[in-house]
Specification:
- The chain is mainly alpha-helical and about 210 residues long.
- The chain folds into two domains: about 1-15 and about 135-195, Helix-hairpin-Helix base-excision DNA repair enzymes (C-terminal) (Endonuclease Iii, domain 2), CATH 1.10.1670.10; about 25-130, Hypothetical protein, domain 2 (Endonuclease III, domain 1, Orthogonal Bundle), CATH 1.10.340.
- It has helices at about 1-15, 25-35, 45-55, 60-65, 70-75, 80-95, 105-110, 115-130, 135-145, 155-165, 170-185.
- Helix 1 (about 1-15) packs across helix 11 (about 170-185) and helix 2 packs antiparallel against helix 8.
- It is globular, with a radius of gyration of 18 Å.
- It starts with a helix and ends in a 22-residue tail after the last helix.
- The structure holds iron/sulfur cluster.
- Iron/sulfur cluster binds next to loops.
Length: about 210
């Protein structure tokens, strides 16, 4: 069922090609900055903040470290919670500056203050091409509504393991599947779902209206 869902989403929405990169930063730096900025805010707001950083030539984690807080505050303001996010960005930049890229794994990322499991997995898969699945609130919502899981507040790692055990261990599939879930939840399986338009409604356990 879990792999079949991936196939259905994939044929409905096509290739997502995540992560959306600007091309102005190196991949790891841009994914990490974006993953921290997107905590508790929409990607639209992050895009504005990233655009500000690029225009100000703050193009790497090293630049983040070397830019004063007041300047950063103005630049990342659109992403909200800027005091906290500046702190997190600087702590992250400092931590990764002390190690080689090859040494960065999940445990290392989780040891950095402000980096939770979703952010860590996002950085690992989209920034470092590690085959690890990202779970988010959309994943929990969709899998619960489809009846794949029994409770929406399922533990992050429990759902991650369930998904990883039921799809091929393939980097592209992992990358695409997460992006497709986000796409479906933004388009149809919203907070108030548009079930009458949904191609999954025939087998959806919790379809509404
Ligand atoms: S039928 Fe409704 S609840 Fe089920 S996946 Fe589609 S939009 Fe979501």
């Amino acid at each position: 069922m879990i792999y079949n869902l991936y196939k259905q989403l994939s044929s409905a929405y096509g290739k997502q090609n995540w992560w959306p990169l600007s091309g102005y930063m190196n991949k790891f730096d841009e994914v990490s900055i974006g993953a921290i900025l997107t905590q508790n805010t929409s990607w639209k707001n992050v895009e504005k903040a990233l655009e500000n950083l690029i225009n100000a030539k703050v193009l790497s984690l090293e630049d983040i470290l070397n830019t004063d807080k007041d300047t950063l505050k103005t630049l990342i303001k659109p992403a909200g919670f800027y005091n906290l996010k500046i702190k997190r960005l600087k702590e992250f930049a400092k931590a990764v500056s002390k190690v080689r890229k090859e040494e960065i794994d999940r445990d290392f990322l989780l040891s950095i203050k402000g980096i939770g499991r979703e952010t860590a997995d996002t950085i690992l898969i989209y920034g470092l091409d590690k085959t690890t699945f990202v779970v988010d609130a959309y994943t929990k919502r969709l899998f619960y509504r489809l009846g794949i899981i029994n409770y929406e507040k399922i533990d992050y790692d429990e759902l991650k393991t369930l998904i990883e055990n039921n799809i091929p261990k393939n980097l592209e599939i992992y990358k695409e599947y997460h992006a497709l879930i986000v796409e479906h939840c933004k388009n149809l399986c919203k907070k108030k779902p548009l079930c009458d338009k949904c191609f999954l409604k025939d087998w959806c356990y919790n379809k509404q209206n």
